[in-house]
Amino acid sequence: MHIKKILLTGFLSILSLFLYAQSSISGKLKDASGAAVPGVSIKVQHGTAYAVSNIEGYYHIKNIHPGKHTLLISAVGFKSQKKELTLKEGEQLQLNIDLENAISEINAVSVIGRSASQEVNRQAFNVTAIDAKKLYNSTLDLSHALDRVSGVRVRETGGLGSRMNFSLNGFTGRQVKFFLDGVPMDNFGSSFQLNNIPINLAERVEVYKGVVPIWLGADALGGAINIVTNTNRNTYVDVSYSFGSFNTHRSTLNAGYTSKSGFTVQLNAFQNYSDNNYKVWVNVADINTGDYYPKQHIRRFHDTYHNETVIANVGVVGKKWADKLLVGITLGKNYSEIQTGARMVSVFGDWHRRGDIVMPSIKYQVKDMFIKGLNFSLTGNYNLGYEQNIDTMYRRYNWFQQYKQYNGKGSERERSMYKFRNNNGLATANLSYQLSQRHSFILNNVFSTFSRSGKDELFPNDEKYDQPKKVRKNIIGLGYKFDYSEKWNTSVFVKNYAQRNSYSQSYNPSGNWGDVAYSNQESSFNKVGYGVASTYFIKPTLQVKGSYEKSYRLPETEELFGDLINLEGNVNLKPESSNNYNLGISYQMNIQQDHRLSFDGNLLYRDAKDFIRPMLNPNQTKQTNGNLADVTNLGVDGEVRYSYKQLFTAGVNMTYQNLRNNTRFEDGRKEQSPLYRDRIPNMPYLFGNADASLFFHNVLKRGNTLTLGYNFLYVHAYYLSWPSQGDEKLEIPRQFCQDVNLVYSLANGRYNIAVECKNLADNRLYDNFTLQKPGRAFYAKVRYFFNKN
């Protein structure tokens, strides 16, 4: 009997411990608009239990002792709260929390915010998330907002709408993938590029450095940019217009309506126009006399750009059978005059390009499909738009706008009225399953198709336009995530990359001049990659993370077939691969609730094979791409940010990347290459940003805020060509750029007026192959925002 009592007592003790372990608090956090707020810290006072709200605003604190407790709720940009509650033994308490903005989150223009994006930053992957809402009053587009992130350099061939080269920790161009709400932007065409999309289109922008989560899919070699658009399900209108130097006009409209029944309509529209007639420093020879005039300050004269884009979606949300079902259409057009070639020595006065985008789409998402924890999403789109290259004027221009007219049928570069369609299609599917609190799985597949077809009315019988240019690509990935606790989680994944290219190559069958025939060719690739990412919170405010990936990147269509402007195709490109290693640390500290200090640091190593990099073609008039056998990069980037109450914030970030040619022997030669261990040319290796903002609240009237902002960009000098090649080292000089801004927001951000000065000191700024960017410029912007709960 005594033994039975002991066993019974022991059993009841174990049962009580079990029940105690199951006591918890969970719920959802929302802002004033009703939107979910991720990244909010919820902590039990005088205890160790805590949680952070996920990307959908949900939190779950487990293993709480029964009794009276105080919850501490805090997030950057929102007022801190305390919640008193009593928790019974074994109780599963549901507690939803509404957050109140500490200041209007749309006042600042130069602050890279973190408030609504902290959950993203807390992933195991090396990721930085920009809260785009903090930049809505600026005239920034997405590319220039990203240019303020550590590890990122955005280089352009000129002003608004010019060709852009994006670099992330040493990887450039298509090595970095761009996504819109998790869907690859491979087929969006020239009407929808990162440097013509206004920041107002995004809610946040996620920058994945190196290892990319499996749910994004695709074949990113060196990282990914995911643009997350407005998830607001309320009725809202956000409209703005800006005007500035070089006759630049930009406007945006974002609007949405959701009924109680779940019917929803979303509309996003934007427009960009600029003459881009800023002045550049060039050497000019008189086209008639040959007299030479060095260092002339000349205004660009043939660089007008405009584009207009509308994105419309209609469907239902919040249904049991569909959390979201949207049918949409993207319509757009663009016109771009071409002023220069790959270098400033080439000048054009009539060559231009135009195009449009007609892209129907469908988006479907459902949670708990068939069983709890099983989520599915499917997206598809097909671009029916066209591009046209128009070069029919037989002239030669110089920077004085002088020209020589020639007889006959010629051109400035290559006579053409070639009009073509890329016939881009893309489909993505994502299936995830939450097996338990600790175990989850995900399966992702991305399929894309490309087939360029076109005609040139100037050469209707030219067979080269009938030759195949086709690409079929499929990437499938499987991932597993283990959540041991709120402190530690690990993800592992594997991917299969497959691509088939169809094209033709010309040859001379008879040896007679002008005799051309074509031979159809095919190439295919099939590769397997894999990776792991893990993070651990030493303290709630101190996080370490590490990741590794064996990644592949398959050649893109423009790299294979060219863009018919300044990029020459290369069908012999091979896939590139890289071993990516990342180690990061993040620390946040509060001092007496008034002072906030944060630090983020990352160490990276890249070992890439068959590295695809841009270079000049043999006559140096166009860019092309080629493979380097072996490239390594050891780099570091970091950011420090400080804020005082809601009155002042400042931050600084720096990036260093040691990108080296590690190819010792080239083309089977026995002697060592003279370029071995050279730094990769035309690639910035040391750069950084600093910003500061000062806030004045209740200016003239309660609810009105005045913000003063400052941003500083630094780029260290770097070589234009290989350092070991030639006696004279061509160099792109050290660069500084300063921007200042002033924003006055009325009625808690409903009405906004902003003025900006970019490149305040009018410094000379350069990018790819010494192509010059605009000097000092002034802009003004007005914006209206309405949100109905």
Give a description of the structure:
By secondary structure, this protein is mainly β. Helix content is 4%, strand content 53%. Strand 10 (152-156) and strand 11 (164-168) form a beta hairpin. The protein is globular, with a radius of gyration of 28 Å. The model is unreliable at 6-21 and 103-116 (pLDDT under 50).
Q: Number of helical segments?
A: 4
Chain-averaged pLDDT: 84
> Helix share of residues?
under 10%
Strand content: over 45%
Principal-axes geometry comes out as: globular
E-strand count: 47
Largest sheet: 22 strands, antiparallel, barrel
Q: Alpha-carbon distance between the termini?
A: 65 Å
Low-confidence stretches: 6-21, 103-116
Structural class: mainly beta
Radius of gyration: 28 Å
Briefly characterize the structure:
This protein is mainly β. It is about 5% helix and about 55% strand. Residues about 5-20 and about 105-115 have low confidence and may be disordered.
What features would you highlight for this structure?
4% helix; 789 residues; globular; 4 helices; 53% strand; 22-stranded antiparallel barrel; 47 strands; five-stranded mixed beta sheet; mainly beta
Topology (elements, then pairings):
Blueprint: H1 2-22, E1 24-30, E2 41-44, E3 50-52, E4 58-62, E5 67-74, E6 81-87, E7 92-94, E8 97-98, H2 118-121, E9 127-131, H3 142-146, E10 152-156, E11 164-168, E12 171-172, E13 177-180, E14 183-184, E15 202-209, E16 223-229, E17 235-244, E18 248-258, E19 263-274, E20 279-285, E21 292-299, E22 305-317, E23 324-337, E24 352-366, E25 374-383, E26 387-390, E27 395-397, E28 403-405, E29 419-421, E30 424-434, E31 439-451, E32 453-455, E33 470-483, E34 488-507, E35 517-539, E36 542-553, H4 557-561, E37 576-591, E38 595-616, E39 623-644, E40 648-661, E41 686-697, E42 705-715, E43 718-719, E44 731-732, E45 735-746, E46 751-758, E47 777-788
Parallel strand pairs: 1-7, 1-8, 13-16
Antiparallel strand pairs: 1-4, 2-3, 2-5, 5-6, 9-15, 10-11, 11-12, 13-14, 15-16, 17-18, 17-47, 18-19, 19-22, 20-21, 22-23, 23-24, 24-25, 24-26, 25-30, 26-29, 27-28, 29-32, 30-31, 31-33, 33-34, 34-35, 35-36, 36-37, 37-38, 38-39, 39-40, 40-41, 41-42, 42-45, 43-44, 45-46, 46-47
